[in-house]
Specification:
Length: 167
């Protein structure tokens, strides 16, 4: 299955992360392999790498929360199984970089986590209820392990920083 990935970088600070295109493709491929979701050939996912100001505006406009966040997901219309457009993921540099530093992770590791987390929302996963959150976290751990990233929910990393919501 081939996934079409559209990437837009609106914050120059993301250039500090070398190999971003490879990181995105590898993270999304690992998510698809682990989830087992069957998507239409050429399904499209769009990623926006922005700053806190831009994501704050998106968060305010679509979620009514006037503050920056690490990642937002905007699922496309229709069921995932037949959707040509899966949706949009927005990731904010300052918040992700700060969280990575606070948690003792590399920017690359935390960015992979945000990509995977956002993509799982596009596939229909959620974390509103405890049972859903446990299932989504377990899926994230397995996916990230495929990309060489440690469990982001380990006690020494555990802060309530993965707070994205579907808009």
């Amino acid at each position: 299955m081939s996934l079409a990935i559209e990437t837009r970088i609106d914050c120059a600070r993301w250039s500090a992360l070398e190999g971003l295109d490879f990181l995105i493709a590898a993270s999304l491929q690992a998510a698809l392999e682990e989830s087992g979701d069957d998507l239409p050939e050429g399904a499209v996912v769009s990623l926006l790498f922005c700053d806190d100001l831009a994501i704050r505006e998106l968060n305010r406009q679509f979620r009514g929360k006037d503050k920056p966040t690490n990642v937002l997901s905007f699922p496309g219309p229709g069921p995932v199984e037949t959707a040509h457009f899966l949706g949009d993921i927005a990731i904010a540099y300052e918040t992700v970089a700060r969280e990575a530093q606070e948690q003792g992770k590399s920017l690359e590791q935390h960015c992979r986590h945000m990509i995977v987390h956002g993509f799982l929302h596009l596939l229909g996963y959620d974390h509103e209820e405890d049972e859903e959150a446990e299932a989504m976290e377990a899926m994230e751990i397995r996916i990230l392990r495929r990309t060489g990233v440690d469990d982001p929910y380990r006690e020494d990393h555990r802060k309530e920083t993965v707070g994205n919501e579907r808009a």
